[in-house]
Design brief:
The protein has 29 helices and 32 strands. The chain is α+β, with helices and mostly antiparallel strands and 830 residues long. The strands form nine sheets. Strands 8, 9, 10, 11, 12, 13 and 16 form a seven-stranded mixed β-sheet that branches. The chain binds one RNA strand of 87 nucleotides through helix 7, strand 9, strand 13, helix 11 and helix 19.
Length: 830
RNA sequence: GCCGGAGUGGUGGAAUUGGUAGACGCGCUGGUUUCAGGGACCAGUAUCCCCCGGGGUGUGCGGGUUCGAGUCCCGCCUCCGGCACCA
């Protein structure tokens, strides 16, 4: 039996596509409508593509090819997110320079990517670790710096005592230890670079409404931004000329405040602590620094705190309140100070229990007989009491009224706070884009002039093993420089940028890789942005996807680009597990795609992954099913071999006549006519919706049916077969591009299949003359009737009641009603 | 604790969105082919009972709405993902 010779065919067409620049995109062509389809670029530090990449990239390519065949100018680029910690860690461990390992990985992965047979335009590849790219990442930084959106401040960071380096939050394990050495991680205050993403909190929140994104992801971003309306209330400190500002969302509980809490890092702690309490407070503050933020924030930790010895005055009733320091209050949220209302806040309640502080109930239920349990806080809205002139108000009214009262007395004002923090972008690491700023003793922080970019990352004389400060600081040639302002001795900033900065704008750079004198060409941006469909994992919901949105909002705000949002539609691919678990080296269940590609071919492997399950859901990898796809390919191949003669024996006019299936098909058998049109409709809808698995099922059905209908070869009209094979070739093109291109040329075409227009279908041709009506008795399937479409309800009812099966099931019960769903079901109720 | 998503044959998964549950594939069973094979083709395959004509039961569990529920409502269970002292 003839097997489909994928080994000969796949490399042949890959070369042909490349030689004929089939995948080259003209970015300046405005004659065709564009579609910009981007899949998150790959992270070469992982060294090799795994099955998940094939799942993702194969599906996205099928979609892109389909869109292209529908007549759009489609741009589907690919690149490398090549800076980052894994390459650096590998380098430290094996003493190989990260530049070398990264370049090697990129080269290897690029070849693997080419095996997928996707229509990437490789002339527009980006690599974030190349000076041609990071020059513009630095340029982007400078734009932010010039407008004050990039700034330095002292901030608590995670510090591993053993590795002697700063760690990202993701690198700290749940128990507060370092993921690499499992030693203790502490909090350390360090001067860091930040981007003012909080300035855009509200815009980022509002922008979500119009995005065609998964609701779950939008919801995650909303929570992450965490807008919350409340009030800043001023508490004067007794015997000090200081005021503590407390943010609360519940000013209606103001009369229930029994003490005040400051975060350990709060600047007033030192000022107001009494001499008597000083030793204890110092010890406590010191103690909190011994924990990482992650550890401190563990919700199940018992609350601790220390009294400062100082008091503050409640502006509502003049009561004096103890001021405490406790690490359950965070310096980084709100004002870093809290008015504690134990009766109506469970956290404060727990704290009071431990330290024997008083509880004052000021909110009750509206039900006069309703009692509130007193063993925990009552956090709901209710009716105010013990609250002076506000007694009897609902919480909603009270919040308004207290706000007005406070602001009229200059003791507070309503504000909006966000959970979102400014984006900490500096890293004390080597393998990243250097921050293009010079520190001059005389002039301060001075931006490197744009025409001096890039600030090259030195590849020699850098000791990148961690020792407690930025590796670049140890490189004399790099760090010592002249101040661009005064020309005096100065030092370069030794930090590098978070790789999320690199990946926050790469989709802009794809459009201008041919330009060395600008980050992006505004005309092209305005023509191609936003990205029409962006595909990537849901794990980026609150990281990359917020950062990229922020950068676009920012560039828009300073007038550099027109578009407001980077990604119009977002799709998350699912995750491929193996044996029910996520693939990982430690579990030893990683599946390497290469042997499967070698044994079954690229198309077969792509098809199998797409067929395995829903693109968005993911699935569990199994070696077993792929054989079914090979059989499917072989069946198609043999079908073409068996009918090869029709391509020469059927003349050109016949071919023209059947170019478009929606045209007159009067001479084609009704069954086939219907089948072809039906398959076009189904496959079209499925590809539009990323439902590759069902699209492939429909094509399998078509092939099965063609085998059945052509069992008797002599009775088949060759034109009919020619039409069927042509239709099949076009429909399978996006899914199995190599095979389809081969078949396309075999049936007599010279140009690429992917320059061919997609097929339209004829609705009328799908309509069936004969339909099967299901007869139910009390909703139970009882019998079937095959009738001509449009048979009247009366006739159907009569026929149904005559059925022996129906009679048997009805027994002697009387007919009550008949429900009729046209052309589908007749339900007899008795 | 809070917010999402999902539970369907031996197995991967379908189901026009309230209308024939199990499409398509894997596996398995039987058969055909001068078939040495992990080849090709045909038929069967949710499950239980059975007088072989049928009958009962079935989409995580328990209720409900409806002529009719995998799909909608209420209450649970399990798994996965995210957030987690955010005042």
């Amino acid at each position: 039996m003839d097997e489909y010779p994928f080994k000969k065919i796949e490399p042949k067409w890959r070369k042909w596509w490349e030689d004929n620049k089939i995948h080259h995109v003209n970015l300046d062509d405005s004659t065709e409508a564009k579609k910009y389809i981007v899949v998150m670029f790959s992270y070469p530090s992982e060294k090799k593509l795994h099955i998940g990449h094939w799942w993702n990239y194969g599906g996205v390519d099928a979609f892109s090819r389909f869109i292209r065949m529908r007549g759009y100018n489609v741009f589907e680029p690919m690149g490398f997110d090549a800076f980052g910690l894994p390459a650096e860690n590998y380098a430290i461990k094996n003493n190989v320079h990260p530049a070398i390992t990264t370049r090697k990985s990129v080269k290897y992965i690029r070849e693997q990517l080419k095996d997928i047979g996707a229509m990437y335009d490789w002339s527009r590849e980006v690599d974030t670790s190349q000076p041609e790219y990071y020059k513009w990442t630095q340029w982007l930084f400078l734009q932010l710096f010039k407008t004050g959106a990039a700034y330095r401040k002292k901030a608590p960071v995670n510090w591993c005592t053993d590795c002697k380096t700063v760690l990202a939050n993701e690198q700290v394990l749940g128990n507060g230890t370092c993921e690499r050495c499992e030693n203790k991680v502490i909090t350390r205050d360090m001067e860091q670079w930040f981007f003012r993403i909080t300035d855009f909190a509200d815009n980022l929140l509002k922008g979500l409404d119009d995005l065609d994104w998964p609701e779950a992801t939008k919801s995650m971003q909303r929570h992450w931004i965490g807008r919350s309306e409340g009030t800043d209330i001023d508490f004067k400190v007794v015997n000090h000329d200081e005021t503590i500002h407390c943010f609360t969302t519940r000013p209606d509980t103001l009369f229930g405040v029994t003490y005040i809490v400051l975060a350990p890092e709060h600047e007033l702690v030192v000022k107001i602590t009494t001499d008597k309490q000083k030793a204890e407070i110092d010890a406590y503050v010191e103690e909190t620094h011994r924990y990482s933020d992650i550890e401190r924030l563990a919700a199940d930790r018992e609350k601790t705190g220390v009294f400062t010895g100082a008091y503050a005055v409640n502006p509502a009733n003049g009561e004096e309140l103890q001021i405490w320091v406790a690490d359950y209050v965070l310096k980084t949220y709100g004002t870093g100070a809290v008015m504690a209302v134990p009766a109506h806040d469970q956290r404060d309640f727990e704290f009071t229990q431990k330290y024997n502080l008083s509880v004052k109930w000021v909110i009750g239920t509206s039900d006069p007989h309703g009692t509130i349990e007193t063993d925990r806080a009552f956090e709901e809205y209710g009716i105010m009491h013990e609250s002076g002139q506000f007694d009897g108000m609902t919480s909603e009214m009270g919040i308004e009224a207290v706000n007005e009262w406070l602001s009229s007395r200059n003791a507070g004002k309503s504000t909006v706070r966000y959970r979102l923090r400014d984006w900490l972008i500096s890293r004390q690491r080597y393998w990243g884009a250097p921050i293009p700023v010079v520190h001059c003793k005389k002039c301060g922080l001075i931006a490197v002039p744009e025409d001096e970019l890039p600030v090259l990352l030195p590849e020699k004389n850098v000791d990148f093993t961690p020792r407690g400060s930025s590796p670049l600081g140890s490189c004399k040639e790099f760090i010592e420089t002249k101040c661009p302002e005064c020309g005096g001795e100065a030092r370069r900033d030794p930090d590098t940028m978070d790789t999320f900065v690199c990946s926050s704008w790469y989709f802009l750079r794809y459009l201008s890789t041919d330009s060395q004198d600008q980050a992006f060409n505004p005309d092209r941006i305005n023509r191609w942005m936003p990205v029409d469909v962006y595909i990537g994992g849901p794990e980026h919901a609150t990281g990359h996807l917020i950062y990229a949105r922020y950068i676009i909002h920012y560039l828009n705000s300073i007038g550099l680009i027109d578009c407001k949002e980077p990604f119009k539609k977002l799709i998350h691919q699912g995750i491929i597990n193996h044996k029910g678990q996520r693939m990982s080296k430690s579990k030893g269940n990683v599946v390497n795609p290469d042997p499967f590609v070698e044994k079954f071919g690229s198309d077969c492997f792509r098809l199998y992954l797409m067929f395995m399950g829903d693109f968005r859901t993911g699935g569990d990898w199994s070696d077993d099913g792929i054989i079914g796809i090979r059989r499917f390919q072989n069946r198609i191949w043999r079908l073409f071999l068996a009918w090869e003669h029709v391509n020469s024996s059927v003349g050109v006019p016949a071919c023209d006549r059947i170019m478009d299936v929606s045209n007159d098909l009067s001479n084609v058998e009704p069954n086939l006519k219907r089948l072809l049109n039906y398959t076009i409709r189904e496959v079209t809808n499925d590809l539009e919706n990323f439902d590759f698995n069902t699209a492939i099922s429909r094509l399998m059905e078509l092939v099965n049916e063609l085998y059945k209908q052509t069992a008797d070869k002599d009775n088949v009209d060759p034109a009919y077969m020619k039409l069927a094979l042509r239709t099949l070739t076009i429909l399978i093109g996006p899914l199995a591009p190599h095979m389809a291109e081969e078949l396309w040329h075999r049936i007599g075409n010279k140009d690429s299949l992917f320059n061919q227009k997609w097929l339209s279908y004829n609705k009328d041709a799908i309509r069936q003359e004969e339909v099967t009506i299901v007869i139910q008795v009390n909703g139970k399937l009882t019998d079937r009737l095959s009738v001509i479409k449009g048979t009247s309800e009366e006739d159907l009812k009569e026929a149904a009641l005559k059925s022996e099966k129906v009679k048997r099931r009805m027994g002697d019960k009387a007919l009550k009603r008949v429900i009729y769903v046209p052309n589908k079901i007749i339900n007899i109720v008795c």
